[in-house]
Amino acid sequence: MKADPTPPLPVRGKPLQPLWLRATHWINALAVLIMVMSGWRIYDASPLLDVTFPAGITLGGWLGGALQWHFAGMWLFAFNGLAYLLLNLSTGRLVRRLFPVTARGVLADARRALAGRLAHADPSRYNQVQRAAYLFVILDLVLLGLSGLVLWKSVQFPLLRELLGGYEAARWIHFCGMAALVTFALGHVVMAVLVPRSLLAMVTGGPRSRRPGQETAS
Question: How far, CA to CA in Å, does 38 sit from each of 46, 47, 153?
C-alpha cells in the first residue's frame, strides 16, 4: 500500500502591519514624545501666550537641557520619518491605504461614526476619517519640521523664513502645529482603547492576509 505524501505546510500571508511599519511607528512615537515635552520647556522660556506648561510634564530641566533633548529627538524624528515615507511610497502602501479621500466621504464617515454606525470589521481598510487624519498629521509633521528649521537656523534658511512669514510667524506655526499634533495623538490613543485590536496589530503585526489561491480553513 502506497503511503500518502506528506501534506505541504500551510502558507502564511503577509501581516496586517509589516515589521518596518511597526518599528518606524514606535520610534516616531518616542521621537515625538521627546520633542513635544522638551519643546514645552523651551516654550516656557519665552511663551507666546499668557500660559506656561507645568514643569512636571516637560523634559530637560532647564532651557539648555531642553534644547539638547529637542535636538536629539529632532535627528531621530528626521531619519526615522524619512525612512517611514520612503518605505510607504516604495511599497505603495501610502497610496493604497490612504487614498482615495474626499470631503464628501469624510463627512459621510464622520456622520456614521457619531451615530455609532461606522464598521471596523475589516482592519486592513481605513475609513475616510482615518485617511484624512493620517494625511493631516503627515503634513503637520512636515510643517513642524520646516518651521523648526527656521527657529533653529533662521539666518541659514532666509527663503524658508520668508515663505513662512518671518521668524515670529514661524514660532506661531510651530506652536499651532504642536497643538494639532498633541490633539491628534490624544485622539489616536482614545481610538486605540476603543478598538484595541488596532493597538495589538501595531505590536504583533496583527492577522495575516491569505495569499491568492490559499484555501479558507473550514
Answer: 13, 14, 18
Rounded to 10°, the helix 19-45/196-204 angle is 110
d(CA 120, CA 194): 11
Tell which residue, 102, 157, 158, 92, has the closest CA to residue 127.
102
Q: 18-26 contacts: CB < 8 A, separation 24 or more?
A: 18/205, 19/205, 20/83, 20/87, 21/84, 21/87, 21/88, 21/93, 22/202, 22/203, 22/205, 24/80, 24/81, 24/83, 24/84, 24/87, 25/84, 25/202, 26/202
pTM for this model (two decimals)? 0.86
Record the cell numbers describing residue 133, joined without a space.
487624519
- Mean pLDDT over the full length of the chain: 89
Residue written as grid cell 455609532 = 116
The pLDDT, as a whole number, for residue 214 is 42
